Amino acid sequence: MATESERRTSFDEEILPQLDLLYRVGLRYTGEPARAEDLVQDTMLKAYRAWERFQPGTSARAWLLAIMRNTFINLYRREKREPISMDLENVDVAPEERRNEETDPEGAFFDKIVDERILRGLDKLPREFKEVMMLSDVEGLPYAEIAQALSIPVGTVKSRLFRARKLMQADLYNHAVDMGYINARSGT
Amino acid sequence: MTARFTCEQTLELLMDFVKRELPAHIAEAVQHHVDICRPCEHQARYEINFVVLLETRFGRQACPEKVKERVLEALRQEELSG
Fold first, then answer.
1. Radius of gyration of chain B (CA)
2. Lower CB count within 10 Å: N or C terminus of chain B?
3. Among B34, B55, B57, B7, residue whose Cα is nearest residue A106
């Protein structure tokens, strides 16, 4: 049986490199640095207490993210701040549009949008969409690892990611039009 | 021989293509279509630029040192009490 010191060493080697990722995801879950710090600390302590249950060779990232997500959801329930649940399948997503006739078909306007506005767009998404987009497009996790972290099938990861991207792209596009970065689509 | 995809098939696979989650032979067929179809090339670039935007703006933010120290101290206390 591993000593406390050996246990701590193996935990540090596997888990501590994930602190940056945990903090970024925690920030998006909570929306506030102070709450994100608490969430990161709670997650790390829970992970340490449960370290025997981690299976070597599996994804430490996904394991840790699952703990963070559960911790966050429980925290929200305790504080009765759980957002109103949504029927995610019926979230209105603009139909796929080809952008070849627009003035900026490759989305160069993205570069003009300030970080704060992008974050606002991300934070406006339903939590289930936001977390998939964070893990996929910000953190670069593969579908399988996201599915493991969120305890959902890969197909659900893909459909949520698709919808999240469309919602956010539409939001940023409308913002870019409002700001005069690009011209609105003709006929709209 | 590389399979040939239509625009519709390509657009359906674009998200997986951008995420590099397609098997090599399918990715090759999507790439082939994107190389010869300007509208699909634009759409692919749009999707790639969107992901690059998120990754480069927000994917490099580090956990502040004070938070790391706080976590390490909490773990030290947990280790001592364990």
1. 22
2. N
3. B34
Contacts with B, A 21-60, CB within 8 Å? 22-24, 27, 37, 40-41, 44-45, 48-49
What average pLDDT does chain A have?
87
A66 pLDDT band, cuts 50/70/90, is: very high
- Residue A119 · residue B58 · CB < 8 Å: yes
Within 39-68 of B, beta carbons closer than 8 Å to A belong to 39, 42-43, 45-47, 49-51, 53-55, 57-59, 61-64, 67-68
pLDDT at A187: 46
CB–CB of B10/B33 below 8 Å?
yes
Q: How confident is the model at residue A188 (pLDDT cuts 50, 70, 90)?
A: very low
CA distances for A44 relative to A17, A105, B12, angstroms = 12, 43, 39
Chain segment A24-58, per-residue pLDDT in tens: 999 999 989 999 999 999 999 999 999 999 998 89
8 Å CB contact of B78 and A48: yes
**What's the farthest any 2 CA atoms get from each other in chain B?**
64
Q: Environment class of residue B35 by beta-carbon count within 10 Å: exposed (0-12), middle (13-18) or buried (19+)?
A: exposed
B42/A169 CB distance under 8 A = no
Closest alpha carbon to A68 in A42, A48, A49: A42
For A132-147, the pLDDT digits (tens) are 999 999 999 999 999 9
Q: Kindly tell me if the per-residue pLDDT of A92 is higher than 60.
A: yes
